[in-house]
Amino acid sequence: MKNLIRFMILLNLFVIVSIHALQAQDEVGIKPLTGEIEFDGLVNEPAWKLSQQFPLTMHFPVFNNAPTEQSQVYLTFDNDYLWVGAILYYNDVDNIVSTSKKRDEESENSDAFGILLDSYDDNENALAFFTMPSGLKIDYSVSNDGEGGGPGPGMSSKNYTWNSYWDVKTTTTNEAWHVEMRIPFSSLRFQSKNGITKMGLIVNRSISHLNEINTFPPIDTKYGRGANTRPSLAKTIVFEDINPRNPVYISPYVLAGTTRMNELNENETDYEKTDDPELTGGLDVKYNLNNNLTLDFTVNTDFAQVEADDEQVNLTRYSLFFPEKRLFFQERSGIFSYELGGPQNLFYSRNIGIAQGEPVTIYGGVRMVGRVGKWDVGFLDMNTADFEETPSENFGVARLRRQVINENSYVGGMMTTRLGFDGSYNIAYGFDGIFKYTDVDYITVKLAQSQDKSMDTKVFSMDPTFFSLELNRRSEAGFLYEAKYAYWGENFDPKSGFVFINNVHEVRASTGYGWIADEKSPIFKYSFEGDFSIKSRMEDGKVENMELAPQFKMDLKNGIGMFISPGYNKEGVPFDFELPGGIIVEQGDYSYWAFRSHFNTPRTKKIVANFGIDGGGFYDGNQFAIDLETDFNISSSFQLSAFYKFDKVRFDETNQEFTNNLARLKATYMLNTKLSMSAYMQYNELENIVLSNFRLRYNPRDGNDLYLVLNDTRFADKKDLTPTPPGFLSQTILLKYTHTFRL
Length: 743
Description:
The chain is mostly beta strands. It has a domain at about 30-240: Immunoglobulin-like (Sandwich). About 5% of the residues lie in helices and about 55% in strands. It has two helices and 46 strands. The strands form six sheets. It has a 24-stranded antiparallel barrel. Strands 1, 3, 6, 7, 8, 9, 12, 13, 14 and 15 form a ten-stranded mixed beta sheet that branches.
């Protein structure tokens, strides 16, 4: 027996040592810089050859093939910077495609190179640093392991609004284009233990003329089209003894401008003109408490430079969602996400500083994000001024999440407060957990409540409660499934969040099968799926809405994609509601068939088009909708994009109908990577308005920005309006300058 015990102990020790050895082999040590690098965009110094090299493997269109074009990628570091170098070869350099100079370019029609750093090695979040042959800077954050839902409800997991401090230079030779990046460690949040720092790394190279993506490490396309940006698939890299200083960034701004309004008088007999000049300033301070915690202060926060929201037409009974575009709320903002289904979320930052669609003065606030041990930490507190019937308010958010079981599983909690200076209050809190039990299978559990002064709610009650349980598979090959149950209580109303429905429960289930085609096929992947969802009202047990929809999806290797789905729908309308155009949908139960489809051309071409057609039944009538979005990448200095949507709804029995045309046109001119101009015009036939926005941006270096902004709103058609309106309803001109000091 003693010999058996000794044998078992030795066997366990052997297994433990073997596991640690395998883990160590699975990590790549980054060599410190030996020699000097001249930061000129040309990777030719001997120091690069002495640093760690990373071989690339084809990710798309055929996983694990040898890349068509050769690449040499290097990483090294010194006391201040992470250095990234790349020589990206071509058999014919005339095939290099460079179609933009714009900061944070989101299109995929240019050659590109970059890295993603999971700086906390948490397998869920990452920071991306990319460039194109023109030398532009693209940086964004990735949250939720790239699985959508990102830094705010309804948004992508890629957050391009996030910006950091770093530098890049590029040079094109007769055989390749070269990239040199230097990323300050002070711009990264990370943790060190006993002088050892671990981060996750993904390297990406896009070759536009071949519609090809190469990566390090090799990443299987079975994980989806965006698998090359999923932090959980990164390779762990190891640094020794990095101890950067933690600078303070102080960013004061000054803003001057004026707004002229033409508004109807009280009797609606004529228009009155008013002028509202503005001269103000404010301050943002960013302080790195240590390598892994960042504290932001803001005073008299202003977002005048933010681009206007896209016009939308609401054909539902529920509130429209508009994404957050303001920079202050962006850094590592995925930590504040607590999804409640669709775009609904326990925290919605657009509640801060916007009321009734109008900007509200933000006196100031503080924000802290980072990681302590295995805990993700987020804290935000802001105060706003009163606006019409909305009192001055204080908004607070606290978020904690911790890794458990494995590197992709978390448990956490979140609390939000909205306190009015008139004595009103709303508090919401929730607990959540996500558990990965295979390489692609996840379980997600959420439980939240809200308490409001205006409601008589109890903690041990389901009325103010939200609950959900979800199982899903994050793969696009083989058997696919998702199953979910969700419950929204009658009095669940987090006023710091975005919720458009309550007093219902939902059952959702989908299943299907996906195939990734072989190397010789022109098809990349395709799938057949079936989706079923039903929401039922708890007050009467009737259906709120239901859909049963078979789906077919297919992507070709040349970039063409399609989605087709006929669906059977039920709608239970508990009360009359009004659609655009004054159409009334009466109380009752409705069932109908509808059809949805979407097509896209290759994203790597100079002209990119997305096309959709929806049609069929709509309550007891019919609907037809068509939308077309086209990008024209004319040159690296000029881009043009256009969007058009046509909606037609008709109810034969009541002889009601409406049509609407919605159009958007945007032109961008980039003199170089520092100076750009954009003009954005929107037309909404239903609202009879044209909105125009012009922005000039001069960004000589990170943190220094000069904006000239012109906004104009006017009626599109004035001939049938009484009284006759003036030429415009409002015009604004603003000049804003921000200068950042690094201490």
